UniProtKB/TrEMBL annotation, chain A:
CDD domains: TM_PBP1_LivM_like. GO terms for molecular function: branched-chain amino acid transmembrane transporter activity. It is found in: Cell membrane. Pfam families: BPD_transp_2. InterPro entries: ABC_transp_permease, LivM-like. This is Branched-chain amino acid ABC transporter permease. The keyword Cell membrane applies. The chain crosses the membrane at residues 20-38, 44-63, 70-89, 95-115, 122-143, 174-193, 226-248, 260-284, 296-320. It is a multi-pass membrane protein. One of its GO terms (cellular component) is plasma membrane. Keywords: Cell membrane, Membrane, Transmembrane, Transmembrane helix. Its main location: membrane.
UniProtKB/TrEMBL annotation, chain B:
Gene3D superfamilies: P-loop containing nucleotide triphosphate hydrolases (3.40.50.300). GO terms for cellular component: plasma membrane. It comes from Pseudodonghicola xiamenensis. This is ABC transporter ATP-binding protein. InterPro entries: AAA+_ATPase, ABC_AA/LPS_Transport, ABC_transporter-like_ATP-bd, BCA_ABC_TP_C, P-loop_NTPase. Residues 1-252 form the ABC transporter domain. One of its GO terms (molecular function) is ATP binding. Keywords: ATP-binding, Nucleotide-binding, Transport.
From TrEMBL, chain C:
Coiled coil: none annotated. This is Branched-chain amino acid ABC transporter permease. It comes from Pseudodonghicola xiamenensis. The keyword Translocase does not apply. It comes from the Bacteria. GO terms for cellular component: plasma membrane. It is a multi-pass membrane protein. It is found in: Cell membrane.
Amino acid sequence: MRIHFKTSYDHDIRLFPDWWSFSIYAALVIVAVILPWLLGDFFLGEVTNVLIWAIAGLGLMLLTGQTGQASLGHAAFLAVGCYSCIILMEHGWPFLLAFPAAGIITGLFGTLFAIPAVRLHGIYLAIATIALSVLADDIIVLLDPWTDGVSGKFAPVIDIFGLEIERWSTPARFYWLVLAVTILCTLAYRNLLRAPLGRAFAAVRDSEVSATAMGVHIALTKAAAFGLSCAITGLAGALMGFFAGAFNNETFSITISINLLMMIVIGGLGSIHGAFFGAIVIAFLPQVLSMVTDTLGGGIAIPGLEMGVFGAILILFILFEPMGIYGRWLKIRTWLELFPFARKDMFRRQKSYLKTERLR
Amino acid sequence: MSLLEIDRATLKFGGVTAVNDLSFSVEEGEVYAIVGPNGAGKSTVFNLISRFYEPYSGRISFAGENLLDRRADAVADLGIARTFQNIELFDHATVLQNLLVGRHRHRRTSMIEELLFTPRVRREERRHREVVEEVIDFLDLQPYRDKMIAGLPYGVRKVVELGRALASGPRLLLLDEPASGLSVEETQDMRWWIDDIRKQMGVTVLMVEHDMGLVAGVSDRVLALADGAKLAEGTPVEVQSDPAVIAAYLGAPADGGVA
Amino acid sequence: MDILQLLVSGLANGCVYGLIALGFVLIYKATEAVNFAQGDLMMLGAFVTLGLSNAEYVGLPFWLAAPLAIAIMAGVGYLLDLLILRHIFGQNQTAVVILTIALGFVLRFVAGAIWGHEPQTLQSPLAMGDIRLGGVVLGMADVAVIVVTVLLTICLYQFFQRTKLGLAMQAASQNQMAAYYMGIPVKRVQGLIWGLSGAVAAVAGILFASKGAIDPNAGLLGIKAFAAAVIGGFGSLPGALVGGLIVGVIEPFASRYLAAGYSQIAPYALLLFVLVFRPHGLFSQVRVKKV
């Protein structure tokens, strides 16, 4: 077992606790950077997809895992990010301006939505966000002059100082672009966690009453969480648009919202790793399922199978591993580190009773 | 001028008068205890000071400033910190993180700076951490620093909550039943800590407590409440021997003083 | 006359929404969880009835198949609680929300695997014929839906107000620990609530299937029932029904009098409107937590 000897407070403040974990993440980034030379275009596309989902997952994780506000409407914010980025580019903005602008615009939308939403708790918030997700579809159609409604839009080619980036013709460049955004978002998320605002998010999640008594402005903090979460989600939405190439009002449906929420639960609520683990599951599950049905059933597509299996996996996770894949990973790691001294009841969950949320 | 002044505060829930025309003041540097039977309105007084409840009438001022002009989250900025009767910690965070939330009122950095984790944020973090470590040393919380609250025993949580309040660097500390549910030794520790908080840190303490031993041991003045109104006020000995207080506690037939 | 017809068909739709919302409220009252799969339970109830009564499947007479289906769905509800929901007791609401959404996916898959994804119609005696009142033509099914819903709501209301079990259910929902101490078998009571809401879902499903075709995605109707439940305040049985009726009536009128594109927004816009101005519904039960 590795033991961290801490000699200064900076040990807890800096990004990595020790050289070992720094080298692991550094190695991971290096592998990620050279991946285009290791993988074919198909799998590179899949990995790109994973990363885009992971960014969206980070966005939702900030809101749901960190601040405790469940959202079933994040597809709407993906849509805002996607449409605003591409509409800005159609108006002649360069990608390098349009892309961050899309994040900011989505963040502003999120903050705007937060104004009524900060008053809502638990299920009411979940339902309000569902309504938002359903409405997004209709609103995109109503805004036809800007969004081209049902017929949809095509993503233009990205041009960064003369360097052309496109999903199909230059998959490696597109992958690096997505990777860069992923790393930046992850860093920003990580920075937030070790700063006062990140702790305020957790405080709001765990006890609004005592957060208030400690001087945390609940509404502002939640609005900040919504804004940041939606900004990250908006960036993911823009990348999704480029990845898909074409999109319309049905691309960002409520199913996407639900998938996104389920994804971060499977991955592990409240951790950065969880967003990535969940993204891997959601991006590769269809592939795995089609491989399984190919070998078993001779290639007959079973409608609804994907969602059925996904639902079943999720139920099993919530029942047996509510901390998600990341939680299981931590347990396995601890078990290995302590071997052979790990005890079974080390991870036993405490029994809990229902605390009414009608009293708040 | 007193540090905290409650002037003829009244609070009604529907038809029930929880606090009835209550006035008292807490002087800088003293330990002031509020006692009274269950339902006397002790915690309600705290919630009035924390601005969780809006008084029906009356004034509350702190260091000359009208508290009623402030939002609940702006009360902490004045240097008022509190603990809760049933412990309200951030369960899914570590002890260290809980204490650091106590520093929130000293946050000087903006969201953008924190996203980038600029050198200023790092400096501020170190400064917060130093204060928090002093609190950890003071309360002997070193073994629990990186433990999750959710797995801690009750007695430790109680201390962590005190620590979180102290980490905010308060002028006035509101302790809501600091000794409830604690063992004899833990209560003894709590007594020493309250003494030290007042003497070493110069923090004024206002507490609600049932344990008369603790109250008599640490407080300078005691206020006895019954049905939201003042029953008696004075030194612990005076209040304990007040016939109205004895009657209210023992439920004996009122002989004069009890309303 | 036109308006009256719109009103009746709106009310009938609203009754189905109201019944699904009733299922939400039942479970919310008992366990403070929202069953996002309630719409899918309704769909399953419709398919079970269809499977039992339609000639191409089992072919039982409708009046035998319907009670049987209701009983089966009550069993399904109870089992869902016993096998799944009970185990995540006391965890936060997000977990329950996601769990029940996942359940909905699984139910949809199961129904699709058994009965296929093509829309099917229930051969129901309720669906036959029209009633003529003067110049107004009312669907028999619409009228039946309204009558059954009203009866069911009255029964449930009486059940919660008058019977010991109903009171126990209320107690268990308001303070679980205290209910334990008072000797109420909280877990069994919650299982029964789930059974009850399964039965209500089956009734809603039968009524819904009497009015038109069903397919495994019919459960998505549940989203509109959310609007109903929220407008009703999530804690009140009559509130849920009223909410359902409001949503049901708004829909046909909106599609008649509003421009295309705006009409389907109407229920959700109303939902958001209610949430903004009455965050806990029109019949709110939320109080401030004591510290």
